[in-house]
């Protein structure tokens, strides 16, 4: 298991290392949750497989295998594939099916830099514009994120983490800013998810979020801007290591 040892040497958790190195395992058949269509649930399951690294960059999406493992027909799977292509997670190849989109390290780095500038801008505005109720909502999300960390619930943690960043952006009250940030986030969601699977980085990210929350609650725009920039700089460093691990695994 050369891939597994390589990934572990870079400090990734055993869970993520296993996901990358081992073949895709069967999952429970997709069942529609209340209010969601089968297509939406299929899209969510397929997206999760990509985000968590169970389906690695460049991997061909085998329709027969995926329909069996997800317990769905080809129609919702194909619709899910097209949806994920629009999100940048899947690449459609004419007459050859689809693959998990390769990750362009330069584009990821540049995208994160732009997102960092948007976060800093939004953070400054949020310190003066956000209501107490909105700040309390971010605080509540933070404590829910801490609970996810205690349970070692990667997906729950990531969802709460993303919600915090989205809420800070939304507190700026600028619809164009919010839409632009979310569109950029869709392009780098995979690497952001995988960047916190290192246990030490996970704890570091929690500490950084504590500082971000403290600055926001104090409505200290300068400190919040600095903390968001610091958080992003550390994130970019871990992302670079994560991408190197994926490249080594592919080799």
How many independent structural domains? 2
Strand content: under 5%
Number of helices: 11
Strand order of the largest sheet: 1-2
As residue ranges, the low-confidence spans are 1-35
Query: What's the total count of β strands?
Result: 2
Radius of gyration: 19 Å
Overall body shape: globular
CATH names the topology of the largest domain as Four Helix Bundle (Hemerythrin (Met), subunit A)
How much is the average pLDDT? 83
Measured as a percent range, the helix fraction is: over 70%
SSE pattern: HHHHHEEHHHHHH
Estimated structural class? mainly alpha
- The span between the termini is 13 Å
Largest sheet: 2 strands, antiparallel
Give me the CATH superfamily of the largest domain.
Answer: GntR ligand-binding domain-like
Report the top-level CATH class of the largest domain.
Answer: Mainly Alpha
CATH architecture of the largest domain: Up-down Bundle
